[in-house]
Amino acid sequence: MENRLIAAMLDETADLLEISAADPFRVRSYRRAAEAVEASTVQLSTLLDEPKKLLAIPGIGKGMAANIQEIEKAGTFPLREELMLRYKPSMLELLRLPGMGPKTVALFWDALQVGSIEELEAALEDGRALTLPRFGQKGVEKLREGIADYKRNSGRFPIHVAEQVAEKVTAYLRELPGLDRIVAAGSLRRGRETVGDLDILVTGPACAGDQVAAAVEHTAAYPLAGTILAKGANKVSFRMRSGLQVDVRLLPEGSFGAALQYFTGSKTHNVSLRQRALRRGYTLSEYALARIEDGAFVAGASEEEIYAALGLAWIAPELRENNGEIEQAEAGALPRLIEEADVCGDLHMHTEASDGKDTIRAMAEAALALGYQYIAITDHTKQLAMINGLDDERALAHIARIREVDAAMEGRLRVLAGIEVDILADGTLDLSDEVLAQMEIVVASTHSQFALDPQEQTERLLRAVENPFVRIMGHLTGRQLLRREPMRFDLTAVLRRAAELGCAVEHNASPSRLDLSDNHLRLARELGCRITIDSDAHATGELGKLQYGIRQLRRAGLTAADVLNTRPFAAFMSGLRPRP
Ligand code: DGT
Ligand code: CA
Ligand code: CA
Ligand code: ZN
């Protein structure tokens, strides 16, 4: 079994142990083991006959090694089974509600047998919740709001969460021999910001003829699935405990391309493509491109051959939103979209000086390992006192430390002095101009006052852009996907002014932000803004996690030339806003 599946089982067990009020040390040992397993670069299933090596992994003791061996043998282990019998798997979903910690979940279960969101709603409705100790009308209201929020957002999932689920399902499916290709299609393949459900397509000899029944059984036995929703001749649908639905389709190889094309979508792209097929005397379905006349098969094994038969170049999934991509493909005018490998540096990251986990040196080494040529260290400023933001004095000392690391890297990587300076409510900045003047990369961003009147908000951001030391505007709209709406302001006015002044705008690639959106990125390019893509990493492991941001840039049709930090160091520096 893949490491990440093992890790997920250990993590679930930790959740259930917490609910059962187990010894906190015991809970922690499961959490630590889950982290260690997830982080391990060695496939644990290869170590089963070498218990010593298993034990050598920090965080894995004798008991845990036994659990892992049991998971490999039986797909689960005794403690997990025992907890699953004692509680309901749907209780894990309750833990996701705001204000519902393991203790409260246990309380509701022990006193009222509440084990799911539906049962909790009923208990809040009919007054049973009020009979619980230390639980009043206020608590009831809070939980009601929590459930409403959860439901509003639970229709969709952040892309990185959906992708993790897809990877786990894929890892599990791979255990069955004879599955050659497993691809997550739908909105995930198109790189949308959030995902409604997963559409996983599978093909290989094990999907052919009478073998498919066994493949369906294997799929339906997925141990992390919450509820099986449907099981057909070649399709299995289940719902994860998080609420995410997963549809798995097992397909013959000859129509895999047609299915991939169909289930990648988008719907509107497919509608346009089908109309084009009809005009040319073909029908296009999830099974094949065929001649209308006599139903003869034209193409179906690969997407490329289907697009080619329709007189089109293959279209990258990120562009399939019916925004002119079909016309571009026909004219041979599709852009060569930016790729992760085009990025040469990262201009937004935090260290232990504020809320990051690692040192300047560690971040530099990690960036070097990624093949970057330059980075900027951009910690927070004092307005964010809770996370130890820097004041002028500490910022100066920090600059000196950054310069030391820069020197120590001996030109293998340039480490630029920078800051993520807070934009205050009136648009002034949280550090003095004298200090800002000493840094190469001043990123200015908002972390509060998201609800200002739109005109005031626009003035605030314009004032920040006017500061001559600001070279990059960070996560400009302040949104957090599924959690906080973008600030309301005149984005065009701010972008236009940034373009005039040569101030760049950032695309923040953190999957909880992905700020700017695809439409905003298109607008920024049209207005002539310089654009950067940044990780906003808070630990070495988050550096280089640009994939979701890159896909957002691709959805906006951006090429490497549209993005400043695809340039080598000297060209990058000369593309920045000139210093006063
Ligand atoms: P989502 O799940 O809301 O994030 O978005 P999608 O795009 O993954 O949508 P979904 O899961 O409903 O369907 C997956 C793909 O299947 C969709 O992008 C296109 C294709 N599809 C589904 N239903 C239809 C349909 O009624 N007509 C056409 N042309 N395509 C469809
Ligand atoms: Ca979908
Ligand atoms: Ca679907
Ligand atoms: Zn920030």
Radius of gyration from CA coordinates:
26 Å
What ligands does this structure carry? 2'-deoxyguanosine-5'-triphosphate, calcium ion, zinc ion
The CATH topology annotation of the largest domain reads as TIM Barrel
Which strand order does the major sheet show? 11-12-13-14-15-16-17
CATH domain class name of the largest domain: Alpha Beta
CATH architecture heading of the largest domain: Alpha-Beta Barrel
User: Unreliable stretches, pLDDT < 50, 5 or more residues?
Assistant: none
Number of helices: 24
Shape: globular
Secondary structure tally: strands: 17
What is the percentage of strand-forming residues? 5-15%
The total domain count is 4
**Can you summarize the main beta sheet?**
7 strands, parallel
Question: How much helix is in the residues?
Answer: 40-55%
Q: What is the first-to-last residue Cα distance?
A: 59 Å
Structural class: alpha/beta
What is the mean pLDDT? 94
What would you give as the CATH superfamily of the largest domain? Answer: Metal-dependent hydrolases
Describe the structure concisely:
This protein is α/β, with parallel strands linked by helices and 580 residues long.
Architecture overview:
With 580 residues, this protein is of the alpha/beta class. The model has no long low-confidence stretch (mean pLDDT 94). Helix 17 links the parallel strand 11 (345-346) and strand 12 (374-380). The chain has a 7-stranded parallel β-sheet with strand order 11-12-13-14-15-16-17. A 5-stranded mixed β-sheet has the order 2-4-7-6-5, sandwiched between helices. Strands 8-9-10 form a 3-stranded antiparallel β-sheet. Helices cover 42% and strands 13% of the residues. It is built from 24 helices and 17 strands. The site of zinc ion has 5 residues, from loops.
